[in-house]
Amino acid sequence: MRLAITLVIALAVLVFHYWASRRPLRYWYVGGIIPLVWLVLLAAAFSHGIVNWAQDWKIIVFPTLIFFFMWAEGHEAVRKKELAKMKAQDME
To answer: Which segments cross the bilayer (predicted)?
Structure first.
């Protein structure tokens, strides 16, 4: 049961991060909420000695890269979408 709850929370976080990463350019910072929270949680885990870098580096690096790449990809997609919209308005 605990695993199911963890997976549901992880899925909810990923869905929110996907949604937040695709907000209009003026709200670029919304997509950074999850990566910022993740980095704060990692810092807290390191400071309390919960995480051992030598053993847990995959668990640290993999989600960090996913969060930042999703944010960057979403930001780029929104930029391209707005650029296409501007070009369509110029054609009119």
So the answer is: 32-51
- Residue found by looking up tokens 């996913």 in the block: 66
Identify each DSSP E strand in 1-92 by its residue range: none
Residue 6 C-beta-side C-alpha neighbours within 13 Å: 3
Mean pLDDT of all residues belonging to the chain = 89
Dihedral sign for Cα atoms in the order 5, 10, 15, 21: positive
The pLDDT of residue 65 is above 80:
yes
Give the tokens for residue 44.
């807290």
pLDDT exceeds 80 at position 92? no
User: What would the mean pLDDT of 52-76 be, rounded to a whole number?
Assistant: 89
**Residue (of 30, 37, 41) closest to 71 by Cα position:** 30
Kindly report the number of other CB atoms within 10 A of residue 21's CB atom.
25
**Residue 90, C-beta contacts closer than 8 angstroms, at least 6 positions apart:** none
